[in-house]
Structures are given as structure tokens and as C-alpha cells.
Write a structure and sequence with these properties.
The complex is a heterodimer. Chain A is an alpha+beta fold. Chain A has helices at residues 14-19, 24-47, 88-118, 121-124, 130-140, 159-165, 196-207, 223-230, 235-239, 255-266, 269-284, 312-317, 319-322, 331-359, 380-387, 390-410, 431-448, 472-490, 514-517, 532-536, 554-568, 595-608, 612-617, 620-632, 662-674, and strands at residues 3-12, 51-54, 78-85, 143-149, 369-377, 414-419, 422-428, 459-467, 495-502, 505-513, 579-580, 636-641, 650-655, 658-659. By secondary structure, chain B is mainly β. Chain B has helices spanning 43-57, 66-69, 71-77, 156-167, 183-190, 203-206, and strands at 8-14, 88-99, 106-113, 118-123, 126-132, 134-135, 140-142, 145-149, 152-153, 179-182, 200-202, 207-211, 214-215, 229-230, 233-237, 241-248, 259-261, 268-273, 286-287, 290-293, 322-327, 332-334, 337-338, 342-343, 347-349, 355-359, 362-363, 367-369, 380-384. In chain B, the strands form ten sheets. Chain B has an eight-stranded antiparallel sheet with strand order 11-10-3-2-16-1-18-17. Chain B has a five-stranded antiparallel sheet with strand order 21-26-20-29-28, with no helix packed on it. In chain B, 13% of the residues lie in helices and 33% in strands. The chains are: A alpha+beta, B mainly beta. Strand 4 of chain A pairs antiparallel with strand 7 (140-142) of chain B, so a sheet runs across the interface.
Chain lengths: 682, 386
């Protein structure tokens, strides 16, 4: 009798494979490899008679691995297929087996390509049990699981059964002895030696086959990390000759380069010419020619030197000179090197000076911050229920994903992953904000075309502005925390959470519903809000005497913070936390006038700074809205289910009893980034 | 059967922040921008620190092998990683002082990782448990057994809540990581009931991580050089939180340490003895329905001990019957450092909070130790009979 069964196939561990990354290329390699391997498994299940519903795939690509044609991964790590027929259940079980085999075959081919190229017999002989470590890790890393069943009780997929399978994580696990991998700390490094000197001999043998950006002088990697790091070099052998040109490259823009892009784009005339000369000097001094340019960034296609070379602090540290390729340097060589670095710095300072002349400043340096953007669709279960079929949902998500790379590219960024409702991209620090707004608009647009209300298909975002030197893995972890815990859980979805990561760690967290960010939120209590962009220019650093519009400069903001902290009984506020005016009250209706007390204080201080003569000319009514807007940045906003009887399902509320300095910190920082005036400390 | 009264109970508090680094290499001159701190520390770390502190207090010079220097030290403290002499340990457990919301009284409670079958949701910065999962009424065809196995599933009452919450675009109830429950809350769970939200604590209620930048200074020149900067993440306990460790086998006339280095960078800990053992979970004797791991458990065969359909004797030879279903997280990988032979292998342990549902199994005890490495304190489980 004809029947219908579904197969749900899941691949893990996503986090330890993708996010254990030190370089942007690690991040991309992990993300793309996972997507490619997932598609190999998916295609095998399709060829075994299944029809993919998550993700739904057009007929033209069914049974074909499309990942070979693009550098942007887009296949999720859980996919679902439908099987119809007399023995649909057995067909689904057989397809699961075929998918498992196809996954392992593709993985083995990639692993072999790296092993054969970089671990030949003469290298392995320098290790202790290297081959055994390799096979143990390669054979036991992946967690492949599946369930077969029927949707029931109005369900359209077997996501519920897949969730049940996750409650029993009997994943492969082995003992891992010895010294651990620099990238994946639960796995043994491949040399197998305990003594550092012995390890060095082994890793020097591999390093001699690659360049210093492929393998850092102190890195000791496991099999899995080495595959991630080196497979781009052997991609044709690992994947096949039919890959697209976009995939066949070994360079990825570094975080330093991503930070420098806006500054590089500004250079013109003499400044540009001098920068080109400096680049030649830097290349001769040992910096790598490692930055790959892509379409849309033609204006800086000339800038190929390793990103840190554009930052004086990095040049002063002399990273290329710290790890000489030919033994220890003698005194004379060290002096020579010192002279070379001084010359480099001098030229770089000249580039900064010329760049400054272009904008009327003494000097203009690149901002040492970039942004990592992570976005994820909200409440997919509800969206699926509203749309009525997984195929329709997949179709919409496919349309959205196909636009992501173009949008990110327009903002000088690089898409790492765009599949389903997920986006991961690296961008210049300030550009990430407008990019996120456009991606949100694109997301909502594809669902609006299908008749969905704007508050049904929403997407949340985390934007982490990080110093380029901060560990990428921790930036990623911060982005996930901001997206899941702050933007979604705490702010109520359809929200953006912003984190500022300085060299010393996470410095500020600010999260608001998107409508508040854009300054279009309508709140039940008519709380003021203004778009961040509108407010940003008020965060000017300079102090101008006797003005009708004083800026929100540092002394003004810190004075308010001190006074508010006294009033609210709190000294140190942790990043992302709020002080409360009245801890016993948690509703959003202000106490009689108490919520406004903070605004009154801020307003009084603001007017004091105007000077006597101006104060008499400018009315209180005209300055109060400016302060209300400023205060809106310091309060807790959230999106919540509307009380019954309301016209809308959702409402945005502002808790007037709360205060946090982080919103101001974020605004002040972004103003500095926008103006290109963020200092970099040695 | 565990005789809790045979242990001396120690309260261990940080002098400042602590540092329990993960397995990532952490050597001078290498990129150390990414050194994490794990918490709570593994038993091996605390046991090692306590043995060394006891040795120092009782005659060890502080260098070389105490076993070579003194026969009594060797007899009591053992020799090396495998031989703990006559010592037995339980812990380390997190402990918190909880102030009453009604009056000025407070109580001190051990905290346990929230069992895997408790589901709930976060509300206003706290975790609200909603239900306990149970073995699914249907068998599920999956890679564990295509013939079908029972998997942990929300009860019917929660399923209704799931649907309602999805319709309101809220996250369905789920099991969180990094939530701890008091002994009182765990007792409620062992009776098959949902604990109150006031018995649950988020990680950030108990401890936080601090990123710091450290610079090594040359002692003679007092200058720094290349590779001297590092970036560890410390763990800082809230003021009303500490660790509790049980130690058995220490002779009565031995001196106890008051301060000892614990974990990375030899950061200091204050040690004091408790007059009474802390309160441990209490289950009911009878037909064992559910086994909950309270500390990491190391099994010699499959790392998860026993899966659905397996004999319960694979968990402990004292258990009869079969395992119906298991709520199991990924393994906890535990290694350590052996001063005699270097890094210990990372081995997969069952994470605390794992739940096994048993059928046709009788038990007389409600606290037991399963698996291997039990002298280190591993393998502690609570058995609840409903």
C-alpha cells in the first residue's frame, strides 16, 4: 500500500568544526566543508528516491552537488526528505544508509588529499604514531544521526522526532592522549611527541611545504584542524576538477584587512601612490602577499599585502621578523632588521599624513576594528505553520539566501555562510550595520511576496565590532551569545544586538528591537526613540563653548553615568546589565515621575553646558526631546506578546526604570569608527 | 552504599579569581590569545591540589616525590596519578548560600547540574522548569536501532505548551546547559516532580568569566619581550558561592591545609573544614525508575555505559533489569596533568545530569558510585524510585 515516510538526517558537531577558527580561512573552510559534505549526503538520499523538503531544491539541481560551484556554503546540517511508495519506510532507512556512506566517502577523499600531500612517509617518520592519530581522529570525528517517521497531529515535518534523537547523544568519542591541538583543544596534535623540540622537528617538516600563513610558527594541529587549514590548497584533489574558480583559491581576507578596507578605499592621488610604494617595501620586508580581492572591491584590488601591515602597531611589533626562517639572527642582523622596520614605519606614517591631508586632518589611520555579522530567522516553527508547507518555506529561504552574497559584497564584506535563514559574514566595522538592515529588508520582502505579515517573518542579528587581533573563535562565540541569548531571548526577537570587543574583551552590549534601532517603534507608553544613525552625530568628542546644541561628549556622558550610579545605588555594572531605579517594580509603567528623573537630570546638565546666554535663548521644550532620545539608548527595550485585545500580536516596551551605559558606549564607539578616529594602542 | 559520614568535608574558596585552563597548548612564546577557563574544575585537579597540600602540611619538602621521602606520606597519599593511597574523594561540588525571601535566614545548598530530562524556558533572567521528559510512548526508528527505540520526550502536558508557545513565537521549552539545581530541587526531581524556579540557578548567578591580559616580566631586567603577553580567561565566583570536597582516609593526627594553590598559575584557595556533611539528594528505595549522574562517570566499554534496551548491569552489577531510555549529553572529556609522566589522556566521561530510565530493576540505595575512577569521586549517581 502506498505510504509516506520522512527521513531527517543530522550532521555534527557543527560548533567545534566551524567555530574553532583562528583565521578567517579556517572559518570559511569549516563552514564550506560542512555544507559540501551535507550536500553529498543529501544528494545520495535524493538518488535513493527521496524528495528534499528541507531544504527544498529545484528540479534542476536534484541529484547534483551544487556546492562545487560556489564559495558560499548554503546547505544546512539537518536535512529532511520525503519518501512515497509501497515500502516508503524501508526506502527511507536505505537512503539514510546511502547518505551516511556518501558523507564518509566524500570526507575520506578530502582527508586523503591532505594526508597524501602534506604527511608523506618522510614527514610521518618525524612523528610518533602520527598515522594512528590521524586515522583515529578522521574516523571518529563526525556525529551522523537520522530518524525515520511520519509527521502527525498536523505536523508538516518530522522535526519533532529529530529533536528527540538529540536527547541521546551517543557520539563517537576516543581517548586523546599527548599534547593537544592549538585549534581544537580536545584533540591530540599530530606529531604525537611530548617534548617541544621533537614536535618542532615534525611541524617544521610540514611548514616547509606550505607558507607561514598556512601554518603559524607555533601552531601544532590535529588531523581535523589540519584538514580545515590545508584542504583549500589541494581542493581539486579533494573535491574534483569540476570546481568553480571562486573555490580554487587559498587566500581569504584577514580580519585586519577587513578592518582596513574603508581606509584603503579612501586613498587617492599622492596618498594612494605612497601607499603602493609602502606596500612594496612591506612585501620586501617579509609581509606576505596574501589578501585576495573579489568583485566589488576593485578600488582596492591593488592592496595585496597581509592586512596587519597597514597598522603601525603591528609593524612596530615586527611579526615577520620575529620568526626568522633561517635560524636565530645575530646582533648585526637584528640591527639591520630594526633599521628596516624603522624605515617601514616612517613610510607608513607618511601614508597616514597624506591620507590625513585628503580630509583636512594631520594624520588618518585605518580603524583597527571589523564586524562579524550573524543573522538567523525567528520562530521558524510558527513561520512554517503560517506558510503551510516546508517547500514554500524553503523556497522563500532559498530566494533570500541567493541575495545575501550580493548585499554583503555591496558593503565590502565577505559572506562566510548563507543558507536557509542563517547568515554569517565579515564586514568593515561600520558597514555591517547598513548591511544588516538591507538583509533584514530582503528577508522580510521574500515572505511579504508570499502574503506574510511583517511581524511573522522576522530575522534577528548580532553584530560584533571587534579589534582585528582579538581571537576569532571568541568573537564567534560572542556573536552566538548575542544572537541567541540577547537579541532573541532577552529582547524578544526581530532585534539587533551589538557587541564591542576591544583588545581587552567584550566592552559593551546593546540590544533593541529593529524598529527601535531604526527609530520607527511605536510604544504603548509613547517612549521616545530615535534611530541610532540620527543620534550618532551628536556623539562628537569635541567640546564647544556657548553653543545652542552641545554634543554628547565624553565628559558629559561620564558625569551622567556617575550621577546615575549614585542615584541607582550601583557602582560597577556588568556588560549588558541594567541598573534599576526601583528593584521591586518590574512593570514598564513609570513610577510617578520617577522614570523621568534620570532624563530631568541629564536635561539639566545638558542645558548647563549651553552657557548662560544660550540658555536664555533656547527653550526647555526644544532641548528636552534631544535628551529623551539620548536616554532611549540607555534603557532596556524589548518586544513582547501584546496584551489581549490589542490590534497587533506584538508590542515594543521600554522599561523607564532601567539604565545602562552600554548604549552610549556603543554609540560613541560607532561615531569614532564612522569618523575613522578609533585609536589603536601599542 | 556511600558512607557520607566517613568523609571530612572541606569548603574551598578562591582568594581571587581562579584559572582552570582547557587542553589548548599554553606555552610562553606561542600565540596564547585564546586560553579558556573551565569550571567547575575536574575532580583530578582538586584531588591533585589537595594531596599536594596535605603532603606539604605533613612533612613533604615541596619538591621531589613525597613517596620517596616518607613512608607514611606514601601510605596515606599514595604515589602518582593512579595510586591514591588510602584516600577517597567526593566532589568537587558547587555550594551556594541562599537567602530566604521570607526572612533573614539563609541556607547553604550543594548545587547539581540540571538533569537532562528537565525542560523549561528562560524568563526575565531566570530558568523556569516546566516539565520532566520521560521515555517516549512510541518507539522511534533511528540510527540507534532501525527497529525502534524509546527516546526521551516531553510529556503530553508539555507538548500542549510547545504548540502554544510556537504559536506565540516563543521558544518551546527545552533543556538548557549551564543551569544548576539545589539539593532540595533535585529531591523534587527524584520524586518525578518539577522543581521550583527558585531552586534553579544560572551559571552567571554563580560565577563569571573574566578576560584579562597578562604580561610576563623578566625578573632580572624587569622588561618584557616578544611572546610575553598572554590572554587568559579566569573564573570568578560570586561571593556566596564556593566549592565543597569530601576527603576520606586522612589520619586524625594529620594537619590540614588552610591555603593551597589550585589550578593554573597556582592561584590560591582558602580551605576550611565543615563541622557536618552537606545535605545530599535523597531518593526512595524500591523499584529503580530513574538514575541521575551527579558527577562525571567513566564506564569501561561504551562511554555512555548503557543505552536503550541494554542490560542495567552495564551501569552497575548491582542493578537488575533493563535500560528503557537515556537522556544523554555529549561526553565530558577529562584529562589532567601527571607530574611524573606529563599530560593525561582526555577520556570521555558521562556528563553529570545524564538520566537513565530503568525497567524491572530493584535497588536499596539511593546514592551510589558507578563505573571506574570512583576513588577520585567520579561516578556519583542518585537513584530515584517512583
Amino acid at each position: 500500500m502506498a505510504d509516506t515516510y520522512h527521513l531527517s538526517f543530522s550532521i555534527g558537531p557543527v560548533q567545534s568544526f566551524v567555530e574553532q577558527a583562528r583565521r578567517t580561512r579556517d572559518l570559511w573552510a569549516g563552514s564550506w566543508l560542512l555544507s559540501y559534505l551535507a550536500e553529498c549526503a543529501l544528494v545520495a538520499a535524493e538518488n535513493a528516491g527521496g524528495t528534499a523538503i528541507i531544504p527544498a531544491r529545484p528540479e534542476s539541481v536534484q541529484g547534483r552537488v551544487t556546492a562545487k560551484g560556489t564559495a558560499v556554503g548554503g546547505i544546512p546540517n539537518r536535512f529532511e526528505l520525503r519518501f512515497n511508495g509501497d515500502d516508503a519506510r524501508q526506502a527511507a532507512v536505505d537512503a539514510a544508509s546511502a547518505a551516511t556512506d556518501a558523507f564518509r566517502k566524500a570526507w575520506d577523499r578530502i582527508a586523503h588529499a591532505v594526508f597524501d600531500t602534506y604527511l608523506p612517509e618522510d614527514v610521518r617518520r618525524k612523528g610518533r604514531g602520527t598515522e594512528e592519530i590521524w586515522h583515529r581522529q578522521v574516523n571518529n570525528f563526525w556525529e551522523l544521526s537520522w530518524v525515520v517517521g511520519k509527521p502527525k497531529d498536523g505536523e508538516r515535518t518530522i522535526g519533532r522526532l529529530a529533536a528527540l534523537r538529540k536527547t541521546f547523544r551517543n557520539v563517537p568519542a576516543c581517548e586523546e592522549g599527548g599534547v593537544k591541538c592549538s585549534l581544537m583543544p580536545t584533540l591530540q596534535e599530530l606529531s604525537g611527541h611530548l617534548r617541544r623540540a621533537d614536535q618542532d622537528v615534525f611541524w617544521a617538516a610540514i611548514a616547509s611545504r606550505v607558507n607561514t600563513l598556512d601554518l603559524g610558527p607555533t601552531e601544532r594541529l590535529s588531523a581535523i584542524a589540519l584538514i580545515k587549514r590545508l584542504f583549500p590548497r589541494v581542493i581539486r584533489k579533494a573535491i574534483g576538477d569540476d570546481i568553480s574558480d571562486a573555490l580554487n583559491r587559498v587566500s581569504w581576507p584577514s580580519t585586519a584587512f577587513m578592518a582596513a578596507v574603508p581606509w584603503l578605499k579612501e586613498l587617492e592621488g599622492e596618498a594612494l601612490e605612497l601607499a603602493r610604494q609602502y606596500q612594496q617595501q612591506a612585501l620586501s620586508a617579509g609581509y606576505q602577499r596574501s589578501e585576495t580581492q573579489v568583485a566589488g572591491r576593485d578600488r582596492v584590488a591593488w592592496a595585496v599585502v597581509d592586512g596587519p601591515a597597514w597598522f603601525a602597531t603591528s609593524v612596530r611589533n615586527d611579526e615577520p621578523g620575529r620568526h626568522p626562517t633561517e635560524g636565530e639572527a645575530n646582533d648585526e642582523q637584528r640591527q639591520q632588521r630594526k633599521g628596516q622596520v624603522c624605515k617601514l614605519l616612517k613610510t607608513l606614517e607618511q601614508v597616514y599624513a597624506k591620507a590625513g591631508q585628503q580630509v583636512g586632518d594631520e594624520s588618518r589611520q585605518p580603524v583597527p576594528y571589523y564586524s562579524l555579522l550573524l543573522m538567523d530567522g525567528d520562530s521558524m516553527g510558527r513561520l512554517l505553520a503560517e506558510l503551510g508547507s516546508p517547500e514554500r518555506l524553503s523556497h522563500c529561504l532559498g530566494r533570500f539566501a541567493s541575495q545575501v552574497d550580493d548585499i554583503v559584497d555591496r558593503h565590502d564584506g565577505h559572506t562566510v555562510y548563507a543558507g536557509g535563514d542563517d547568515v554569517l559574514a565579515l564586514l568593515p566595522a561600520f558597514a555591517a550595520f547598513q548591511c544588516a538592515i538591507e538583509l533584514r529588508s530582503a528577508y522580510s520582502s521574500v515572505f511579504r511576496d508570499e502574503g506574510m505579515a511583517p511581524d511573522v517573518a522576522t530575522i534577528s542579528a548580532a553584530i560584533v565590532c571587534s579589534h582585528y587581533r582579538y581571537p576569532l573563535r571568541q568573537v564567534l562565540a560572542t556573536a552566538h551569545h548575542l544572537l541567541d541569548d540577547i537579541a532573541k531571548d532577552r529582547t524578544g526577537r526581530d532585534a539587533v544586538a551589538v557587541g564591542i570587543v576591544l583588545g581587552s574583551g567584550l566592552n559593551a552590549v546593546w540590544s533593541v528591537p529593529w524598529d527601535v534601532y531604526l527609530g520607527i517603534a511605536q510604544t504603548p507608553d509613547n517612549s521616545w526613540c530615535a534611530s541610532l544613525e540620527e543620534l550618532l552625530d551628536k556623539f562628537e568628542a569635541s567640546e564647544i563653548e556657548e553653543t545652542s546644541e552641545p554634543t554628547f561628549n565624553t565628559s558629559f556622558l561620564y558625569l551622567l553615568r556617575r550621577r546615575f550610579a549614585l542615584l541607582l545605588g550601583g557602582g560597577h555594572i556588568k556588560t549588558g546589565e541594567f541598573l534599576r531605579l526601583d528593584p521591586s517594580s518590574s512593570d514598564s509603567a513609570p513610577m510617578a515621575g520617577a522614570g523621568d528623573l534620570l532624563a530631568d537630570l541629564a536635561h539639566a546638565e545638558y542645558r548647563r553646558r549651553m552657557g548662560k546666554s544660550m540658555r536664555s535663548e533656547v527653550t526647555v521644550d526644544s532641548t528636552r526631546p534631544i535628551i529623551d532620545k539620548l536616554m532611549s539608548l540607555s534603557r532596556r527595550w524589548r518586544r513582547q506578546v501584546a496584551k489581549s485585545g490589542q490590534e497587533k500580536d506584538w508590542e515594543i516596551v521600554c522599561d523607564l526604570h532601567t539604565f545602562s551605559f552600554d548604549g552610549w558606549r556603543v554609540a560613541r564607539f560607532l561615531k569614532q569608527v564612522k569618523d575613522g578616529k578609533v585609536p589603536d594602542h601599542d | 552504599m556511600i558512607d557520607l559520614a566517613s568523609y571530612q568535608w572541606l569548603r574551598i574558596e578562591p582568594a581571587d579569581a581562579w584559572f582552570f585552563r582547557d587542553g589548548r597548548p599554553c606555552n610562553r612564546g606561542e600565540d596564547q590569545g585564546d586560553v579558556e577557563s573551565e569550571f567547575p574544575p575536574n575532580s583530578t585537579t582538586v584531588v591533585g591540589a589537595l594531596r599536594a597540600a596535605l603532603a606539604r602540611e605533613n612533612g613533604w619538602a615541596g619538591y621531589g616525590s613525597w613517596a620517596d621521602q616518607s613512608t607514611p606520606l606514601k601510605r596515606v597519599l599514595g604515589d602518582g596519578f593512579e595510586d591514591l593511597g588510602q584516600l577517597r574523594f567526593l566532589g568537587p561540588f558547587l555550594c551556594k548560600r541562599i537567602d530566604s525571601s521570607h526572612d533573614v535566614t539563609s541556607r547553604e545548598e550543594l548545587l547539581w547540574p540540571l538533569p537532562q530530562h528537565v525542560v523549561g524556558r528562560f524568563e526575565d533572567g531566570r530558568f523556569v522548569p516546566l516539565d520532566l521528559m520521560e521515555p517516549s510512548p512510541e518507539v522511534v526508528c533511528c540510527d540507534v536501532n532501525p527497529g525502534g527505540v524509546q527516546l526521551a520526550a516531553p510529556r503530553m502536558s508539555t507538548r500542549g505548551a510547545v504548540v502554544r508557545h510556537e504559536m506565540r513565537s516563543q521558544k518551546p521549552p527545552s533543556h538548557p546547559s549551564d543551569v544548576f539545581v539545589t539539593t532540595a530541587g533535585l529531591n523534587t526531581i527524584l520524586q518525578g516532580e518539577v522543581p521550583s524556579a527558585t531552586e534553579c540557578f544560572l551559571r552567571e548567578d554563580l560565577y563569571t568569566h573574566e578576560a584579562r591580559v597578562g604580561i610576563r616580566r623578566e625578573p632580572v631586567t624587569r622588561t618584557t619581550g616578544g611572546g610575553d603577553i598572554y590572554h587568559p580567561r579566569y573564573v570568578r565566583l560570586r561571593p556566596d558561592v564556593w566549592l565543597v570536597e569530601g576527603v576520606a582516609g586522612v589520619p586524625e593526627d594529620w594537619a590540614w591545609p588552610r591555603v593551597m594553590p589550585l589550578g593554573g598559575e597556582s592561584r590560591m584557595a582558602f580551605v576550611s573544614r565543615l563541622d557536618e556533611p552537606p545535605s545530599f539528594p535523597v531518593g526512595h528505595s524500591g523499584s529503580a525508575a530513574v538514575v541521575i549522574a551527579l558527577s562525571p562517570v567513566r564506564f569501561p566499554l561504551e562511554w555512555w555505559g548503557a543505552g536503550p534496551g541494554d542490560s542495567a548491569s552495564r551501569l552497575s552489577e548491582r542493578l537488575a533489569g533493563h535500560v528503557r531510555c537515556v537522556a544523554l549529553d555529549r561526553p565530558r572529556l577529562i584529562g589532567g596533568w601527571d607530574f611524573q609522566s606529563g599530560p593525561r589522556p582526555l577520556s570521555p566521561f558521562v556528563a553529570p545530569g545524564t538520566v537513565w530510565w530503568l525497567s524491572n530493576s530493584m535497588t536499596e540505595t539511593n546514592l551510589a558510585q558507578f563505573g571506574t575512577n570512583t576513588t577520585y569521586g567520579y561516578g556519583l549517581v542518585a537513584i530515584g524510585a517512583i
